[in-house]
Specification:
single chain; 231 residues
Length: 231
């Protein structure tokens, strides 16, 4: 009886191991052809990217320097991989991180820095302008470099526009930026997995989870600030 139970346990363990091995092979098979340096740099970019989004949830200004490390690495990697739309996103991220770093640390008066706030009517119009301009810009870039080789290129145009708006609103410390991050993350998770960049796909999954909690955290912070201001 004992011997039979042991054989069953060993059989189940072997099946579990084989399934896990097949699962990880399915996830990371594309990395077989990657250079070790690229895998290392992507890993570092993912770690700093997750750290940056976590700091954004905490409303901490170090969201920007950590984000710059991540996006700068992705600019290099995406150029190597020929993903121009994604490279443009991260080039823009890097520039807007510098702008956001300045905005978040700039004092609006003697004692206060730029607070979390809702978007006003002018900023809504500016967001629409940025979204449409990004679509046109990325479309022209793909046309120029003849990169319309798959349906993912068209999706890249949309995600680029979404993330352009998200980063601009984040730099201005607007709570609405979380909504755009959430939408872009939902699209990017399967998109990057389909492209063969599993680590980046997992990064966007983590981004999505943090973004949901980030929105709730910023909402509580903003509501508390508005209640204090109204007294």
């Amino acid at each position: 009886m004992f011997s039979g139970n042991m054989r069953s346990i060993i059989y189940l363990c072997n099946r579990f191991y084989q399934r896990m091995a097949n699962f990880f092979e399915f996830l990371f098979r594309p990395y077989i052809n990657y250079e070790p340096l690229q895998i290392l740099l992507e890993t570092i970019a993912v770690v700093f990217g997750i750290w940056s989004v976590w700091l954004a949830k905490k409303n901490h200004v170090w969201v920007f320097p950590t984000g710059i490390v991540s996006t700068a690495l992705y600019v290099y990697l995406l150029y190597q991989w020929g993903l121009l739309g994604d490279m443009l996103i991260n080039t823009y991220y890097t520039a807007m991180s510098l702008y956001g770093w300045w905005i978040w640390t700039r004092k609006i008066d003697v004692s206060n820095q730029t607070p979390i706030s809702y978007v006003n009517r002018q900023e809504k119009l500016q967001s629409v302008f940025i979204f449409l301009s990004a679509i046109v810009f990325v479309y022209l870039v793909y046309q120029y470099f003849d990169k319309w080789d798959a349906w993912v290129s068209r999706v890249d145009v949309i995600t680029t526009a979404i993330f352009f708006v998200a980063m601009w609103l984040m730099a201005k410390r607007k709570i609405a930026h979380w909504i755009f991050w959430i939408a872009g993350d939902i699209i990017s998770i399967p998109l990057y997995f389909y492209k063969g960049y599993t680590l980046t796909s997992l990064q966007y999954l983590i981004f999505l989870i943090i973004a949901v909690y980030g929105y709730r955290s910023w909402k509580r912070n903003l509501d508390k600030h508005l209640q204090t201001a109204s007294k």
